[in-house]
Design a protein that fits this description.
The protein has 783 residues and is an alpha+beta fold. It has 25 helices and 18 strands. The strands form three sheets. The protein has a six-stranded antiparallel beta sheet with strand order 3-2-1-6-5-4. Strands 9-8-7-12-11-10 form a six-stranded antiparallel beta sheet. The longest helix is centred in the N-terminal third of the chain and has 68 residues, at 8-75.
C-alpha cells in the first residue's frame, strides 16, 4: 500500500513518531483508569455515608420509642409496684406481666418486654416470670456503667425458656435501662428486646457489590455490640462473632465529624474504605468496611475496552507515523541520492542550494504544523470563552476542568466583567487604523498585567472588538485599587498610542451561572453610552441612573405595546437591550421571570383583538411557556424567544388593522377626541351611532386602534388633563370635571397609574409652580 523506503533516516522518523503516539496512548489510558477509580471511590463513599445517616436516623427513632416504653413501665401502677416491691408476690407479677404484654403487642418489632427486681431477684417478662441465676444477673450488670439512668444496647440470643436463656435460637437487640425506685440496694433493670430484622432491614441497603463486607455497630460507650458480615454473592448480612473480624476499632482514627470516611489497612493486609455515621440520640456509631477490591470490580471490563481502544489507536498511529515519516524524509533522500551517492564529477553546481532548499521546505512544513496546532488551540479557547460569556458553558463536558486549563476559575463565589474599548482620535470606532493590531495587542497585555494582580484573568475579544476581561472575586466588593489601576491603563494608551480608552465595569454577580447576564448588561451599557463616556471609566449601573428604574420596568410592556402598534420591531429590540442593561444587578432567574411577566402583560393588552377561532392566540401561549428558566440557558435565547413572541403579536396586529372596519373605528376616534368631556360617553353609545352591537363594535375598535374603548378614552382624557395641569392653574377637581370624570378620587387613581405620580406632584415636577401645592391639596381634601 505504501511506497517502501529503506533508509536509516526514515526509520528514525518512524520510530520517533510511533514512540510519541505510544506514550500518548499510555498516558491517556492511565488518566482514564485514574479518573474511573476516583469516580468509583467518590460514588461509593457518598452513597455509603448517605445510607449510614439514614440508618442512624432509624436507630434514633427506635431509641426514642424504647425510651417511651421505659417511661410507660415506670409510670404504670402495676409495673411500678412490681419493681418497687421488696418481696416475691405472684399477684403483683401477674398484673405486671399483663401490662408488659400490652406494651409488647403495641410495637410490631418488639419481641419481649421485661423487668428485673434486684430485691426479690425476680425476672418478669411479657411471657414468663422466674428467678435469675448469678451468671444471668452479671450478664446484664457488667454491660451497664455504674451511674443512675444509664442504658445500653447489646446483641444476644433468646429461646423458648426466656428467663433462663436456654435453647437459644434467635438473635435480638436488647435495650437495657437502669432504674432505681427503692432507696438503697442494687438498681433494677428494664429490658426491651427488638427483633433482629429491624436492624437487618436497615443495613441491607449498604450491600451494593459482591465480595467481603463488614458492618460494625458500637454503643455510646464505644463498645462493639454487633458485627455483621456479607461474603461472596450474598445480598444480606449475617451476625458474626466479635473475634471473626478483620478490623480493630481501637486502630481507627479519632472521629471528629458526625459522618465521614477514611482508609484502613485490615488484618489480612487488604486496603479498605471505611465510612461511618453517628446517631445523636441513641449514641450508636455505625461503621461500613468495604475493601477497595470490591469498589474496583468494574476495572477488568474497563481494562479490556481500553486495551482494544489502545490497540486501535496504535494502529492508526502506525499509519500516520508511516505517512508522516515518508513525507519528512523524502526530500532529503532525493538530495542524498543525487549528491552523496553520485561521483564527485557528477555533482551539479547548485546541489548545495537544493539541499538548503530541501531543509527549508522541511522546516516550513514543521512550522506550518506548529502554527496549525497553536491556531486550533487558540480558536478552541476563543469559542469556549465565547460560550462562557453567552451562558452556554454547560454544553462542554467537564467544563470546570476545561476552563481551568485556560486559567479561568469557575468556582469563585463572585464575578465581575470589565469591558474595554480603545479608539484613535482620527478613527473613533472600528479597527480601521493600519496600526490597530499593535494598539490592541498592547492594550490586551497591559490590561492583563494590571487586572492580574486582583485574580486570574483571561482576555477575550467579542464581536464588537471590545476587550472583555472576566475577573473572579472572593468577596462581594470591588478591589480597592481597581479604578486607579484602570486609570493607569487609560493614561498609558493615551500617552503612548494617542488612544481614547473607555472602560465599563460590570455589576458584581454571584456564581458562574450569572456571568452571562453580567456580560450582556455590561456590553450593552458600553455600547449605548460609549459616546457620552468616551475616554472615561464608569460602572454599568451608572448608565441607568438618569431614569427611574422602577418606573421604567413598570412601563416596559406599555412601551413595547406602542412599538407593536406602530409595527416597529427594531424599536422593540432596542427596548429589550436597554432593559437588559438596567438589570445587571439581578440574577438570570429573576430576569427570565420579569420578561415572562412583561410578555404576559403584552398579551393582556391585545387580548380584545383575538376571536374565538383565532389560531394566533394558542401559538402565543406556546411561545410564552417557552420563556421559562428551565428551557432558557442564557440571555441570547431569552432575547430570541421574546422577540419571536413580539414578532407574532405584531404580525397579528397588522393583519387585524388591515382587514378591520377602519371607517367605524376612525369615526369613533374622532367623536371621542371631540366629546371626551361628556361623562356619559360609553361604548354602547358609539356602537348605537354605528348601528352595530356593543360587543362587535368593541372588537372592531380594538382591532383598528390597538386599544380597547376604555383605554383609548382614558388615554385621551389623561392627555387633556396633562395639558390643563401644565397650561392652567385650575384646581384638580375642576380639571377632573373638564375631562369628563366626575369622581375626583377616581381621576387621582387613573392619573397616578398612567404617570406614576399624583396630578399635584406632576404639576410641581413639570411646571415648578410650588405655590399651587397648598390650594390643590385643599381642593383634594374638600372633594
Amino acid at each position: 500500500m505504501f511506497k517502501k523506503v529503506k533508509t536509516r533516516l526514515f526509520n528514525r522518523y518512524l520510530f520517533s513518531i510511533f514512540c510519541v503516539v505510544a506514550i500518548a496512548v499510555i498516558l491517556v489510558t492511565l488518566l482514564i483508569f485514574t479518573i474511573y477509580a476516583n469516580l468509583q471511590i467518590s460514588s461509593a463513599r457518598t452513597y455509603s455515608v448517605h445510607q449510614l445517616e439514614q440508618v442512624c436516623q432509624m436507630t434514633d427513632m427506635l431509641y426514642s420509642q424504647m425510651r417511651s416504653v421505659n417511661n410507660q413501665i415506670l409510670q404504670n401502677s402495676n409495673t411500678n409496684r412490681c419493681l418497687s416491691s421488696n418481696t416475691f408476690n405472684r399477684l403483683i407479677e401477674a398484673d405486671a406481666g399483663i401490662k408488659l404484654r400490652e406494651i409488647q403487642t403495641a410495637q410490631s418489632y418488639t419481641r419481649y418486654v421485661s423487668l428485673y427486681n434486684s430485691a426479690s431477684n425476680r425476672f418478669v417478662s411479657s411471657s414468663t416470670a422466674d428467678f435469675l441465676t448469678d451468671d444471668d444477673i452479671a450478664y446484664y450488670y457488667r454491660r451497664l456503667p455504674d451511674n443512675p439512668g444509664a442504658d445500653t444496647c447489646l446483641l444476644r440470643m433468646i429461646g423458648a425458656n426466656y428467663a433462663t436463656q436456654q435453647l437459644k435460637t434467635r438473635y435480638v437487640y436488647s435495650f437495657v435501662f437502669r432504674v432505681q425506685l427503692r432507696k438503697g440496694g442494687s438498681p433494677d433493670l428494664i429490658i426491651v428486646d427488638v427483633d433482629e430484622d429491624y436492624f437487618n432491614d436497615s443495613i441491607s441497603n449498604l450491600r451494593t457489590s459482591n465480595g467481603f463486607q463488614q458492618v460494625l455497630l458500637l454503643n455510646r460507650y464505644g463498645e462493639v455490640f454487633s458485627t455483621n458480615i456479607a461474603e461472596g454473592d450474598s445480598e444480606t448480612f449475617t451476625h458474626a462473632k466479635s473475634d471473626n473480624t478483620i478490623v480493630s476499632v481501637a486502630d481507627f482514627p479519632e472521629l471528629t465529624d458526625n459522618s465521614g470516611s477514611f482508609s484502613y489497612t485490615c488484618a489480612d493486609h487488604t486496603e479498605a474504605l471505611v465510612t461511618y455515621a453517628k446517631a445523636s440520640s441513641s449514641g450508636f456509631t455505625i461503621f461500613n468496611i468495604v475493601p477497595y477490591s470490591n469498589i474496583y470490580s468494574g476495572l477488568p471490563q474497563l481494562a479490556i475496552i481500553t486495551l482494544l481502544a489502545g490497540i486501535l489507536v496504535l494502529c492508526v498511529g502506525m499509519f500516520i507515523s508511516f505517512r508522516t515519516s515518508a513525507k519528512l524524509s523524502a526530500p532529503i533522500e532525493v538530495l542524498y541520492s543525487n549528491y552523496v551517492k553520485k561521483p564527485s564529477n557528477d555533482h551539479a553546481g547548485d546541489e548545495l542550494d537544493q539541499l538548503s532548499k530541501a531543509f527549508s521546505d522541511m522546516y516550513m512544513k514543521a512550522d506550518k504544523l506548529e502554527q496549525g496546532l497553536i491556531s486550533s488551540y487558540s480558536d478552541s479557547k476563543k469559542r469556549n470563552i465565547q460560550r462562557l460569556m453567552h451562558g452556554e458553558y454547560g454544553q462542554i463536558p467537564n467544563y470546570i476542568e476545561v476552563y481551568q486549563s485556560y486559567g479561568i476559575d469557575l468556582t469563585a463565589p463572585y464575578y465581575t466583567i470589565v469591558i474595554i474599548s480603545a479608539a484613535s482620535k482620527e478613527l473613533r470606532f472600528g479597527p480601521d487604523d493600519p496600526n490597530y493590531f499593535i494598539y490592541s495587542y498592547a492594550l490586551e497585555n497591559l490590561a492583563t498585567e494590571v487586572l492580574g494582580q486582583f485574580g486570574s484573568v483571561v482576555p477575550y475579544r467579542n464581536s464588537h472588538n471590545f476587550l472583555v476581561m472576566l475577573l473572579p472575586l472572593q468577596k462581594n466588593a470591588y478591589p480597592e485599587k481597581l479604578v486607579p489601576e484602570l486609570e493607569r491603563v487609560c493614561e498609558v494608551m493615551q500617552r503612548e498610542f494617542a488612544m481614547n480608552t473607555t472602560v465599563c465595569i460590570g455589576t458584581i454577580v454571584e456564581t458562574a451561572v450569572n456571568i452571562n447576564l453580567c456580560y450582556e448588561a455590561t456590553n450593552i451599557a458600553l455600547e449605548y453610552s460609549a459616546i457620552r463616556n468616551q475616554g472615561k471609566i464608569f460602572f454599568a449601573f451608572e448608565a441607568s441612573q438618569n431614569i427611574n428604574l422602577n418606573a421604567y420596568h413598570n412601563k416596559l410592556h406599555m412601551k413595547l405595546a406602542e412599538h407593536i402598534r406602530a409595527n416597529d420591531l427594531d424599536a422593540c429590540s432596542q427596548e429589550f437591550d436597554l432593559a437588559i442593561s438596567y438589570m445587571s444587578n439581578v440574577s438570570f432567574n429573576t430576569a427570565v421571570t420579569y420578561f415572562n411577566h412583561v410578555m404576559m402583560s403584552l398579551l393582556d393588552d391585545f387580548s380584545t383583538t383575538f376571536t374565538d377561532d383565532d389560531t394566533t392566540y394558542p401559538l402565543l401561549m406556546d411561545k410564552l411557556n417557552e420563556i421559562d428558566r428551565q428551557q432558557l440557558p442564557n440571555v441570547y435565547m431569552l432575547r430570541k424567544r421574546c422577540m419571536e413572541f413580539i414578532t407574532i403579536l405584531a404580525h397579528h396586529q397588522s393583519i387585524n388593522r388591515k382587514y378591520g372596519n377602519e371607517l367605524a373605528a376612525e369615526t369613533a376616534k374622532e367623536y371621542i377626541d371631540k366629546n371626551y368631556a361628556n361623562p356619559d360617553l360609553s361604548l354602547k353609545m358609539l356602537a348605537g351611532m354605528a348601528g352595530l352591537s356593543t360587543a362587535y363594535f368593541g372588537k372592531i375598535f380594538a382591532t383598528q386602534t390597538g386599544y380597547s374603548f376604555s383605554d383609548y378614552l382614558s388615554n385621551t382624557r389623561m392627555k387633556k388633563a396633562e395639558q390643563l395641569l401644565l397650561e392652567t392653574k385650575l384646581p384638580i377637581n375642576q380639571i377632573s370635571e373638564a375631562i369628563g370624570i366626575v369622581n375626583t378620587n377616581y381621576f387621582y387613581s387613573v392619573f397616578k397609574k398612567k404617570y406614576g405620580m399624583t396630578p399635584l406632584a406632576y404639576r410641581r415636577t413639570r411646571s415648578g409652580e410650588a405655590e399651587d401645592a397648598k390650594p390643590e391639596a385643599n381642593d383634594k381634601e374638600n372633594t
